[in-house]
């Protein structure tokens, strides 16, 4: 269909700071790179401060601005509600949007608790019967190298899984004077490094392996327990973890190891993983996100070894629409790919991935990790329940 004949898809976004900027970039760009069955239109963005949200709308290319997310959800020109707020508002906004018949993209982690995530997944299932789609923003799946790794796993290139090893390390909390922002308060964030970074690596482990975690054993620590309140003055209590380590067992019996911390001095956004299977291994480092390392263990041992795959060929996932081979992509492209996959799911009526049910499953893993850490690493099963 020619671009001028495309049906439009009105987007309404809630929150316009870090993820709001990244999602705006995705929505602005996606229809100019990929041939889409529908044309996303940046209808309106929502914040709580009228002047600030108007300025954000102008900066990021949104036609209109709202100061109450309920008004955004009710707009006739909004068909997709994109939630880029802290976890404490995900459930309320997503459920209201789904009940109003709007498609939803919700940032990760899906919610701040299993109960909220269950209510959201349940609302998504009801809405799905009306053709409405709900997706979680686990954007690292949309790195071409990660999507290609998944394809290689599906093709059996590394065989049955033995090990998954993933760390996600940042260092912005090393300074004990860093202020007590919402990410350090349980009531707003749900958890600390666990929900912020751990959610991503749990999702990646399950996505890449095609399996779910069935149990975990965890330890966690809050190294700096009091921090200055934003704006200065007195100090407040940190109510989430600074760092968490956990082991896990996948459904097949493979073993997984996870580390998430915002206290790894010198590590800015270091997400590294390695998968070992009976036929080979795959390794990835987000700081070199156009590359995938692959070792084929079926090759003659004398010449076998890890080799670097430059994931920039048109045959690689998402790359058909971008630049010539070797012209690398970056972080922001994951949000363009996320927007593309959501538009395709809406237009074709297919199941979105990752769905709210996938987000709920990750939430159950996070809850099991917290329970295990509270009991000083007692092995804790992850309930294998359907969406209620
Ligand atoms: N996918 C990723 O890689 C990634 C990275 C960072 C954050 N996140 C997730 O994205 C979400 C937002 O994080 P962020 O880093 O953008 O936070 P942020 O603090 O940068 O931005 C939050 C925004 O939400 C707005 N907001 C809060 N409550 C609101 C309400 N009730 N109504 C309207 N607006 C409201 C704030 O004004 C702000 O604009 C969180 O769930 C976080 O876990 C995901």
From TrEMBL:
Q: Which UniProt keywords apply?
A: Oxidoreductase
Q: Where is the Gfo/Idh/MocA-like oxidoreductase N-terminal domain?
A: 10-137
| Highest taxon listed in the record's lineage | Bacteria
Show the stretches that span the lipid bilayer.
none
Transferase listed as a keyword: no
As recorded in UniProt, coiled-coil segments are none
* Domain GFO/IDH/MocA-like oxidoreductase stretches: 149-282
List the protein's name.
Gfo/Idh/MocA family oxidoreductase
Which organism does this sequence originate in?
Answer: Streptomyces sannanensis
